[in-house]
Every structure is written in structure tokens, then in C-alpha cells.
Design a protein that fits this description.
Blueprint (H helix, E strand, L loop, with lengths): L1 H6 L1 H6 L7 H9 L3 H7 L1 E4 L1 H4 L7 H5 L3 H6 L2 E3 L4 H14 L7 E4 L12 H6 L3 H17 L4 E2 L23 H16 L9 E7 L18 H8 L1 H8 L4 E4 L3 E2 L2 E2 L4 H11 L5 E3 L4 H8 L5 H11 L4 E2 L3 H11 L5 H17 L12 H7 L3 H14 L1 E5 L12 E4 L24 H6 L7 E2 L8 H6 L5 H7 L3 H16 L3 E7 L18 H11 L4 E7 L15 E4 L7 H9 L64 E8 L3 E2 L4 E10 L5 E11 L10 E10 L4 E9 L5 E2 L5 E2 L3 E9 L3 E9 L1
Helix pairs in contact: 3-18, 4-17, 10-11, 10-20, 11-13, 14-16, 15-16, 16-17, 20-26
The structure holds 1-deoxynojirimycin.
The site of 1-deoxynojirimycin has 8 residues, from loops.
Length: 755
């Protein structure tokens, strides 16, 4: 490595322990050739640097010249100290100015230690714990040489059909903004000591609103909806100091986000003051040609760079288009220079000119991955993320004296990490069987049926080989036997713990689906077991809300566990056996049937709400109630907390004062518990019709058995603003309902008036 440092003039100027000064970066920039500059704006995947003969491999496929492979300024998803070192050394050797590369990766909810999926951790309503989880993920990934995480994903989602709901924080913009801050801060906290990661928030903007929940589909939103419900989390990420942003693969109101100057320059850079690096999503620059927004690579390069995209991820567009645009004077070189400068500045901020491997080392890799402390953190977050949906006759917690069996395709299965845990191994994940064995050493266990029995469906998921599918789908006879064995052991038991759910690849990118019910074979297993009239505890492993109306009456308890991560089995067992009291609350509304989607709590009032009168002409479905099966904010605990005396210290207030809200809680149960106290408003009359309810604050509090507690909130006028249809933030005097309580339905209401 020594020799490259010496070759690097800029490095020599300042000495090895110093980062470069701004004027040194400027002089580096001015000494670079146009090709070198363009190279800094190109990101290629690891296969470009791992094959000896590039010309017949990735180069041909992507259509990029070998020269630009040499000059590429960053790469994605190359991890592991040895790998990173090999690629970094080689690239620095061949590049004229020996500029270090940036290593970016999808560290979405953990690197080796996997946390529950983001939809799970928002259900914890515990941003502090999530911040710690991201700090821990950054510690692990930086030890393996990653410098930038393509996270947090903070797209608000109101439609459970969209597979990427798994990566989201759910349907609420306020809650997503709170978590955006905790994730950005967690990732970036230890950057100065090279144990953090640069946060690249995504996908700007409003990718979560794809029509029909269909992946990569168009997004069409009124400006008030966009500003009020979709943009706040990205703004929160900027305010929290995120150093990078990623565009979306979709169009927003007819314009591809990757080439939307209004979005990237006017809003993100100018209005919000973001001065970090903007990267496209995977090939999204080239895809603007397919969208019908650009004619060819040159046009696409012009439109994306002019709009504000600095780095072209995995497409040949900047490599093939920018040079001509500059030499033909169609694009001002200053635009390229600004983009390159931002990339160099990021490299310099990370100290890559002094140490191109950043925080990676074999020692750190050996000592910081999957440590007991990290596992403990993952377990705590998994426990806090799980939502108890039903608990008839206090079926849970279990008592060691009950005779139990464990049934289901997830009973003894380590695939609990979900689709985006791409750097982890399921052998490091605790299965439900392993977790439960700590309490019941010899619990009889049977699979009962497969996760899915439809090979075509599994093939459609696009990840599984023919052989893997064959192994997953048993023959008819085997399946019958599996069922018989499950019934046989269940007959001798008092309690059946039944673990069902979605296959890993059913949720995540490109995992959109129309049927949110459990598959037929799993429902058949529930039906057969329910005939035995035993207590059934249903555990669901899934990446999205499922439509459960058709099975809830057949089971006594339902614990919704998401893809719970490395410590999933232990966390589930701790809850089942009462060592932890479940406190998770839903951050998405659960439909009764799939066709209710999109479904969200903060919808606008209609002129004919369903509860206003009986009869035909109200806003409803004729074959199903319109309300959710389980609302936003819902979740049970062992025991019950009563809410009373919701009060404010005044009725009228002005825009410069605040209102104090109090509510009394009493834990009437025999359990110590944790409660998520939720505060909503409803603006009764406004220039733009407002949601029936909107979350503005919450508190997660512990209550000992029998304890009473008074909770205080302060409301200021800044929490009562809304956006009009030109995107302007407005504050209007008038009356607001203040709504507080739990479980979406048991809510207390009072009113205040802003003068
Ligand atoms: C495409 C996805 O949309 C994005 O979220 C991800 O970060 C990139 N691929 C890189 O893997």
C-alpha cells in the first residue's frame, strides 16, 4: 500500500495523518482528466472487480468500457476485509491519482447480527433502542470494510401488498420521521472513530406510494399528500445529518424521481439545505429511457446530472453519456465538477485519503461480529417488536405444567432473518424450537405442512433454484404424513404452539402480492388442529401485515413476530413463557381481507362516513366492514392498563404558547407492563380536509402491577400545521380534537382551540 500513498501527491502534501484541506481537494479536482472525473460518478458492483476477464463478463453485459471500470469511484455490496483490501489496492494502483474507492452496501437491519425487520422495530415504538441497533450494525459492517449503508429506508407505506413494506416503518409520517432520526444518528454516530457508516436515506421520494402496491409502479400524489405524509421522514433524515440520499426507481406525478430537478435540487438541496451526495437507485438512470423520459444514454445522463444525481449506480449512462455532453458543450463542466467534488469531499471526510480501508481490519472482523452483547440487543429489540394480537382467556403466557407441542413449517426453521439480511447466515439464527427448548427441553415438534406447496408460486419469487423448490415442497403423500404426525402428537397435548407465516422471499423488494391471507395448506393445518379443541397459540413469521380474519376464531392467541432476526427463537420463547411482557404496537393497519388495501388510519373524512347512518349510501363495502381487523397503534400486553381523565390545562391557546395535556393510567393487572401512550389530533375544519386522526406524539412507559401514572404531553402550534395543495405549510386557527389512548379504539377525546 505504501507505494500508492507515495504516488498520491495530495497525500504527500499534508502527511499521512491528515485529511485534505478544501483547497487541496479543489486542486486535486482541477488536475483530474474528464474521464477520471466521470469515473468518480460511476458505481459498479463487485463482479466487476472479481473476474480476471472482464470483457466477457459484466462489462459486456452492462456495456461499459474497461477504462471506466478502472476509474470507477465506488462499488456496492463488496464486503469482508480481505475482499475490500484486494479491490481497494487494485483500483488505487491503476487510477492516475490513486483516489480511494467508496464501499457501499445494503446494511438494512443488521450486518451479521440481524435485528427484526424495520416494520418490526417501528412496532417497538422505541427509537432509542433502534438507534443502538443501527450503531451496532455500523460497528459490524465497518469492521468488514463497509463505509456507506444504503439505509435508512424511510418510505411511508399505506399498502401491505407492496413487498418493501418489510423495510419500512409503516404508515405514519411522524413515527417514520422519529425513526429516521434514530437510524441516521445510530449509523453515523461513530464515524469519527471509523466504527460508523454514512447513512444514505432512500428512496427519494415517495416510492412507498406505488399504485396498487405493485413494485416499481407509478406514484401519483397531490402536493398536500406528498408534503404532509411522504416527505417529512426524508426531511428528518437531512436534519439529522445524513450524508447521502438515494433516488427512487419510480415516477412521481409523471416525472422519474431520478431526473426530477424540482425534487432533487429545489426541494432536497435548496429548500432543505442537503449538501451531501445523491446516488441513483440501481440502474434507475438508465430506466428513465424505458419510462419514456429520455431518448438515449446521453439524454438520460444530461437529465439526471442536471436534476442533481451525483453517482450513477450500476448503469452505463454516465460512462457513455457525460463525456460527449461536455465535449459538445451541451452540459456545463461545472455541473460535473460539483458532483465530483461532493464525492471527493465525502471520501475525505471519512479519512480515506489517509486510510483507504476505513475501519476494517482482520482483528476487528474477528472480535466485533455477532458478539453476545450484540445478540442481546437484537433479542431485546425483537422482544419489543412483537405484537400480541389476540389473547383469549389469557391463553398466554404459558405455564411449564401445560403439555405442549410445537407444530408448523416455522417450528424448527432458522430462516427468520427476512429478505434484506443479505450478509447474514441463517446458521447464526436461533430457531423457535431452540428458543423453546430452554423452557421445555423435550417439546415434541412436527412441521405439519410446508410453508408453501405451490411450486409455480415459489418459482415466481425468482430466488429459489429448482432443487431448492423441490426440497421445500413435499410430495402429496409426505404432506399427508406430516399432517398426521402433527395431529398425532397434538392429541396428547394441552397446548399447540403453531408457527406459520410467509416464506423469506414473499416480502422484500419485488415481493408485491395480491393475496394477504395465509396459503391454503397452512389454513388447512389450522383447521385440522382446531378440530382437536386444544389451546392453540399461533406464531406468525411475516414481512407484512397479513389478512387474518379467516383464521382468528380458530386460535386462542396470536403473536405477530415479523422476521425477528438472529435471536428470534429466544425472543419468541421469552414472550410465550412470560419472561417478557409483549409491548409492541402495530404501525400499519391490518386488513380483514386483502381487497381492503390500501388501508391506513390517517385517512380523510368522507362526506358519508360509514358510522354516520345505516343503509346503503355510505362509504363502505357491501361484503366486508371497511375498518381494519387490527388498527394502527393496536397491540395487547399481559394485563391491561386503564386510561382516564384526559385533560388540558387550557382550552384556548395562541400560536406562541403551548398546551399541557395529561392523562391518567392505571395498571390493573398482576403483571408489570409497558404501555405505548399515543397522542393524536384531528383538525376539525381546514383549507384542505384533514385526516380523521393524526399521530403527533407518544410515550412508552413502564408501569408496575397496580401502579398509577399521570402522563404529560406538551402541544405547540408547530404540531398543528398542515400542507396545502401547493406544498405550503399552513397554520389555521380553529378547533382541534385531542385524542389519546391505546389500541386504536379505546380512545379518550377532548378539544382545544387555537386563536
Ligand atoms: C435496489 C434497491 O431499490 C435499493 O434499495 C438498494 O439499495 C439497491 N438496489 C442496491 O442494492
Amino acid at each position: 500500500m505504501q507505494q500508492f500513498y507515495q504516488k498520491n501527491d495530495y497525500y504527500k502534501v499534508e502527511g499521512r495523518k491528515q485529511t485534505l484541506k478544501e483547497e487541496q481537494l479543489c486542486s486535486l479536482l482541477s488536475s483530474m482528466s474528464l474521464k477520471e472525473k466521470i469515473g468518480q460518478l460511476i458505481q459498479l458492483s463487485g463482479d466487476f472487480f472479481s473476474t480476471a476477464n472482464l470483457s466477457i463478463g459484466p462489462i459486456k453485459k452492462l456495456g461499459i468500457s474497461p477504462e471506466f471500470v478502472k476509474l470507477a469511484g465506488s462499488t456496492l455490496n463488496v464486503v469482508g476485509f480481505e475482499n475490500i483490501k484486494r479491490v481497494q489496492d487494485k483500483q488505487m494502483e491503476v487510477q492516475p491519482h490513486h483516489i480511494p474507492m467508496l464501499f457501499m452496501s445494503d446494511v438494512i437491519y443488521g450486518y451479521k447480527t440481524i435485528f427484526p425487520i424495520p416494520l418490526g422495530f417501528s412496532s417497538s415504538w422505541n427509537p432509542d433502542l433502534v438507534e443502538k441497533a443501527f450503531e451496532c450494525a455500523a460497528d459490524e459492517a465497518s469492521a468488514s470494510g463497509v463505509q456507506v449503508a444504503f439505509a435508512p429506508m424511510i418510505d411511508v407505506v399505506r399498502d401491505a401488498r407492496w413487498g418493501r413494506v418489510l423495510e419500512s416503518l409503516g404508515e405514519d409520517p411522524f413515527l417514520t420521521s422519529i425513526f429516521a432520526k434514530s437510524m441516521v444518528e445510530g449509523l453515523q454516530k461513530n464515524l469519527p472513530c471509523k466504527k460508523g457508516l454514512v447513512a444514505c436515506f432512500k428512496h427519494f421520494a415517495a416510492y412507498g406510494a406505488v399504485e396498487g402496491g405493485r413494485e416499481y409502479n407509478s406514484v401519483d400524489l397531490s402536493l398536500s399528500n406528498l408534503f404532509q405524509n411522504y416527505l417529512p421522514p426524508y426531511k428528518a433524515a437531512v436534519e439529522s445529518g445524513a450524508k447521502m440520499a438515494m433516488t427512487s426507481l419510480t415516477t412521481l406525478n409523471g416525472v422519474p424521481s431520478t431526473a426530477d430537478k424540482w425534487l432533487l435540487t429545489d426541494i432536497l438541496r435548496k429548500k432543505w439545505g442537503f449538501n451531501g451526495v445523491i446516488i441513483s437507485d440501481y440502474a434507475s438512470i438508465q430506466e428513465i429511457i424505458k419510462h419514456g423520459f429520455a431518448e438515449d444514454n446521453e439524454d438520460a445522463a444530461f437529465k439526471s446530472l442536471s436534476a442533481g444525481v451525483d453517482i450513477d449506480m450500476k448503469s452505463p449512462v454516465y460512462a457513455s453519456g457525460l463525456e460527449k455532453l461536455i465535449t459538445n458543450r451541451k452540459l456545463d463542466i461545472k455541473k460535473v465538477d460539483s458532483a465530483v467534488f461532493r464525492v471527493l469531499r465525502l471520501k475525505n471526510d471519512l479519512g480515506l485519503f489517509e486510510n483507504p480501508y476505513f475501519g476494517a481490519s482482520t482483528t476487528r472482523e474477528k472480535t466485533s461480529l455477532l458478539t453476545p452483547q450484540k445478540r442481546e440487543l437484537s433479542r431485546s429489540l425483537a422482544e419489543e417488536s412483537m405484537v400480541l394480537l389476540k389473547n383469549e382467556n389469557n391463553a398466554l403466557p404459558l405455564n411449564n405444567k401445560e403439555k405442549m407441542v410445537l407444530i408448523g413449517p416455522y417450528a424448527d426453521n432458522h430462516a427468520l432473518n427476512g429478505m434484506w439480511a443479505i450478509h447474514s447466515s441463517k446458521k447464526d439464527t436461533i430457531s423457535i424450537h431452540q428458543g423453546i427448548k430452554r423452557f421445555v427441553a423435550d417439546i415434541p415438534t412436527e412441521k405439519g405442512t410446508d410453508l408453501r406447496r405451490d411450486s409455480k408460486f415459489l418459482e415466481n419469487l425468482g430466488f429459489l433454484s429448482e432443487q431448492e423448490i423441490k426440497n421445500m415442497v413435499s410430495s402429496e403423500e409426505e404432506n399427508r404424513n406430516n399432517l398426521m404426525k402433527a395431529i398425532k402428537i397434538s392429541q396428547k397435548a394441552d397446548t399447540i404452539i403453531l408457527a406459520l407465516g410467509e416464506e423469506t422471499y414473499e416480502a422484500g423488494e419485488a415481493g408485491s402480492k395480491t393475496k394477504l391471507e395465509l396459503p391454503k395448506n397452512q389454513i388447512h393445518l389450522i383447521d385440522e388442529l382446531s378440530k382437536l379443541r386444544k389451546k392453540i397459540i399461533l406464531i406468525i413469521i411475516a414481512g407484512r401485515p397479513l389478512a387474518l380474519e379467516n383464521i382468528i376464531d380458530k386460535v386462542d392467541a396470536i403473536l405477530y413476530c415479523w422476521f425477528p432476526g438472529s435471536e428470534g427463537g429466544n425472543a419468541i420463547a421469552n414472550i410465550l413463557f412470560g419472561f417478557k411482557n409483549p409491548s409492541g404496537r402495530l404501525t400499519m393497519s391490518y386488513p380483514r381481507v386483502s381487497a381492503q388495501e390500501p388501508l391506513y388510519y390517517n385517512h380523510l373524512s368522507t362526506g358519508r362516513p360509514q358510522n354516520s347512518s345505516k343503509g346503503r349510501f355510505v362509504s363502505k363495502y357491501i361484503d366486508s366492514p371497511a375498518d381494519p381487523l387490527y388498527p394502527f397503534g393496536y397491540g395487547l400486553s399481559y394485563g391491561f392498563v386503564n386510561y382516564t381523565e384526559l385533560k388540558t390545562d387550557k382550552y384556548v391557546f395562541t400560536k406562541d404558547s403551548t398546551i399541557n395535556v395529561t392523562v391518567k393510567l392505571k395498571n390493573n393487572s398482576d403483571f408489570d407492563t409497558t404501555e405505548v401512550v399515543q397522542l393524536y389530533i384531528h383538525d376539525k375544519v381546514a383549507e384542505v380536509v384533514q385526516p380523521v386522526q393524526r399521530l403527533i406524539d407518544f410515550k412508552k412507559v413502564k408501569l408496575k402491577r397496580g401502579q398509577e401514572l399521570t402522563i404529560h404531553f406538551n402541544i405547540s402550534s408547530s404540531q398543528l400545521t398542515f400542507f396545502d395543495n401547493r406544498g405550503n405549510e399552513k397554520l389555521e386557527p380553529g378547533v382541534f380534537d385531542i385524542i389519546c389512548g391505546t389500541n386504536g379504539k379505546q380512545l379518550l377525546t377532548t378539544t382545544i382551540r387555537l386563536k
